[in-house]
Fold Class I SAM-dependent methyltransferase.
Amino acid sequence: MTLNAPRTANNAGAGTKLTLAQVIEAFSDGHLPVRFTAYDGSATGPADAPVGLHLGTPRAVSYLATAPGELGLARAYISGDIEATGVRPGDPYPLLKAMIEKRNFRRPPIGVLAGVVRSLGPGVLRPVAPPPQEARPTWRRIAAGLRHSKLRDANAIHHHYDVSGDFYRLMLGPSMTYTCAVYPTADASLEEAQEEKHRLVFDKLGLQPGDRLLDIGCGWGAMVRYAARRGVRVLGVTLAAEQATWAQRAIEDEGLGDLAQVRFSDYRDVPESGFDAISSMGMTEHIGIGQYPTYFGFFHDKLRPGGRMLNHCVTRPVNNARRRGQALMDRYLFPDGELTGSGRIITEVQNAGLEVLHEENLRPHYAMTLRDWAENLAGNWDAAVDEVGEGTARVWSLMLAGGRLGFDRNHVQLHQVLAVRPHDDGSTGLPLGQWWRR
């Protein structure tokens, strides 16, 4: 039975076997936003839709049946059992955007559900091994220690960041900067925007030649090298071994070894103190909300009186919930990651004894950053697949597209919080007013 057949999943007779297109219709109100085709030859949805989904194998059906929602869809897409049609390889954003803007899926009546199971066969409900890129569920990670212990954090960072330096270069571009850029104009390039972000952080921290900067979660050392080129002495730390090796090599290649160093280290193991400034970009998402008092207390203890800190991280638009990553994020992208609102972060910064000076939301800039990373990935798709395999490349394409939608729709934000450790008498030694240009 095909799209134009008069019988539907809702009125099919008891003995009628449903096509896969009819099964999809059973879970919608009949107005699908995209074209759907399947390996059994059936189809549904508007014939002139610019984008669509092709269900290519029975395994895809099992993924969708055993993990309804985004996790099942992700498994089927990452494994290649579902294909996005009408889009460039490596850029599912137009498809996800069409699906999320007209979300109309529902749970069908029990009689229709029985017909679905009868048509697909009971075997479709038998769990199938997920793609190898999927991390263990939370309850199985206990072997690596409690949530946000040093070992478990190291394992989570390894899962996300120790993919391939060459792969990240294809996606991130020459700056090798994996945090939100700041676009000085709407038509600025990604590289211009990353340079602007580093300048903004440098200026907000009021750094001068000879100052000491600690960059926590330094990635491939872009901020480390930016500051060192301007005469600042910088220590960067990261829990990703490949990042540390790459960053230290880049430091030596630029002749910055006398000013900069990147260590493969947990931030909690940094013995030095008395820093003039601390930067943390894209790190707070990984440490866990329950660790905020320890984290920002570390900032306070490692700064000299009058020293500044800047925290740059993804947040929720609300503060009243402790939110862990959804299944897709937790299993494929950020194991054990947690997000909260900027208000909660500011509260914890203040509770640590630091004085908040300024905060701003860069949400539109992160949507643009993800757009440009996705453009890089799609433009280098064949090379990316050769480097890490198609499944891993698909994970990242899905992350970039989903993340962009999240920032577009204000489901997530990006906040920078600037603070200072006051002297015992309450003074800070800082200029009056805003000393950086934005």
Q: What stands out?
A: Residues 1-7, 156-162 have pLDDT under 50 and may be disordered. The first strand starts at residue 35 and ends at 38. The two ends are 60 Å apart (CA to CA).
